[in-house]
Structures are given as structure tokens and as C-alpha cells.
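Field guide to reading this record: the first block holds the primary sequence, the second block holds the structure written as C-alpha cells, and the final block holds curator observations. Each block starts with its own label. This record concerns 7,8-dihydroneopterin aldolase, catalogued under organism Selenomonas sputigena.

BLOCK 1 — SEQUENCE
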Amino acid sequence: MAKIRLMNMLFYGFQGIYEYEKEQGAKFSVDVEMVTRDDKACDTDRLEDGAVDAASVYPLIQDTVEETKVNLLMTLAAKTGDRILKKFPQVVEVTTRIRKQAVPIHGPLDYVEVEVTRSA
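BLOCK 2 — STRUCTURE
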């Protein structure tokens, strides 16, 4: 197996439990870690032997975060992982972390983060 990570991607989305969050939107930071079925591509140096092209995964993540309307960050993280597993059969596990800085919490806080792992 091999792990491929896309770290600290920045998107603007409209998720949240409050109406103003859905209307105004907010910035989200996203990390995705994918585990491949095997590491054959490490030896052959060929994408078609089970590697993952990060440039192909990025737009799928971007579309999911920017276009999916949900209340909970954990739901968004789960949907992101599910879409990756569906489109990339060489991926057997996906961990998605989503951070949101602008949250309706009254007190000092850098961000709220959720992490969801999905498996094929």
C-alpha cells in the first residue's frame, strides 16, 4: 500500500447548521489522505499500476466541498471520501479532515476540525 496526501486545500463552501452560514458561506481547509490497494506502482513507476494522480482527485474534492449543501462538516467529509472511493478503485481507504475557522462559538478558537475515514 501507499499513501497519497493532499494537504491544506482551501475552498469556499456553504455548509452549516445556521441559515446565515448557508447563505454567506465560509472558507474551509481540507486534507485528504488516500491509501492504495497495493504499492505495485512504486516498483513499476506507472500510474496505471495503482497509483493515484493527485491532479485528478483535486477537482473532485473541490466540487464536493463547494457544491454539496449539508449541515454537518462530518457529513461533508464522509461524502468527499465516498466520492473518491467510487471514482478511484485503486483507493481502499480515505481520511478526510475539514477545518472551518468562522464558526458560531463565542470564545477564543482557531478552528473546528472533523476527521472521517471511509473504507472500500
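BLOCK 3 — OBSERVATIONS
Strands lie at 3-13, 26-36, 91-100, 112-119.
The longest strand covers residues 3-13.
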